[in-house]
Automatic annotation (TrEMBL):
PANTHER family: ABC TRANSPORTER PERMEASE PROTEIN MG189-RELATED (PTHR43744:SF12), ABC TRANSPORTER PERMEASE PROTEIN MG189-RELATED-RELATED (PTHR43744). It is found in: Cell membrane. It comes from the Bacteria. Residues 74-265 form the ABC transmembrane type-1 domain. It is a multi-pass membrane protein. The chain crosses the membrane at residues 12-31, 73-97, 109-132, 144-164, 185-207, 244-265. This is Carbohydrate ABC transporter permease. InterPro entries: MetI-like, MetI-like_sf. Belongs to the binding-protein-dependent transport system permease family. Keywords: Cell membrane, Membrane, Transmembrane, Transmembrane helix, Transport. It comes from Paenibacillus baimaensis.
Length: 280
């Protein structure tokens, strides 16, 4: 075997080993969660630790259902995450399209201001947002969670960069010559091309909204309106020892929707599909 080819083989083996190690490190916490969710509460302290799932998954989950309104909280998270994701995709794609392909007074300054909001920590906006939600009488409602998150500065930046790189101006000019308006051009030409970017932004938005804990904890008061993250927090009791099997079983079933969403859209998320509308 030539020296160059031998070095390529060794390099590939090293890369595969590193990738396998990274995949194992990423997947092991989920596997450990599954193992603990199928064991009794003492399994987490067991030495050596259990590495094979046990028979207690249904019993632990049944115990969790007695403590929290699990399926109601799951439905609440679906509504909040779904509505937030749809609104972010719609408004951010429109704003990104405008910033990428249109010229208007103050465009650069406005875009800099949008990016500047990324530098503001979420905690600084909690008090003014809470006061605004209280004045609108939206406390303890879905609107208090959905409306402040309907537009994302990162989403605008992401869509702008993707549209700049994937949609050529000549294509839009040809559409205008054919008599298409801005909305028709967006719907028939821009939208089909930016599907991969929309899928990626949608996954990020859905995951972040689903996993959000701080803001829902601030604005939600009624158990009936709790999202799944707030409901899971109720499983930690101060009066007795923590039942990790029960907590992990509920967490396992709360994680399944995220895995399903990623599986449905991973084809667009992982592969770029297309990098432009016109090939040079």
């Amino acid at each position: 075997m030539p020296v160059g080819e031998k070095q390529n083989v060794i390099s590939r083996i090293i890369i595969y080993i590193l990738l396998a190690a990274g995949a194992f490190a990423s997947a092991y916490p989920f596997y450990w969660m599954l193992v603990i969710s199928t064991r009794t509460r003492d399994a987490v302290y067991q030495i050596p630790p259990a590495i094979i799932p046990g028979p207690e998954l249904i019993a632990n989950f049944t115990h969790a259902l007695e403590r929290i309104i699990f399926f109601r909280a799951l439905w609440n998270s679906f509504i909040v995450s779904g509505a937030t994701t749809v609104s972010v995709l719609f408004f951010c794609s429109l704003a990104g399209f405008a910033f990428a392909k249109f010229e208007f007074p103050g465009k650069k300054l406005l875009f800099v201001l949008v990016l500047g909001t990324l530098l503001v920590p979420q905690q600084l906006s909690v008090l003014p947002n809470y006061i605004l939600m209280a004045k609108l009488s939206w406390i303890d409602s879905y609107k208090a969670i959905i409306v402040p998150s309907m537009v994302s500065a990162f989403g605008i930046f992401w869509m702008r960069q993707y549209i700049i790189s994937s949609i050529h101006t000549e294509l839009l000019e040809a559409s205008r010559i054919d008599g298409s308006g801005y909305i028709n051009t967006y719907w028939r030409i821009v939208l089909p091309i930016i599907v991969p970017a929309l899928a990626t932004l949608g996954i990020f938005t859905f995951l972040n909204t689903w996993n959000d804990f701080f803001w829902p904890l601030v604005v939600l008061k009624n158990n009936e309106n709790f999202t799944i993250q707030i409901a899971l927090q109720q499983l930690f009791s101060r009066n007795d020892s923590i039942d990790y099997g029960m907590i992990m079983s509920a967490t396992f079933f709360a994680t399944l929707p995220l895995l399903i969403v990623f599986a449905l859209f991973s084809r667009w998320f992982i592969s770029g599909l297309t990098s432009g509308a016109v090939k040079s």
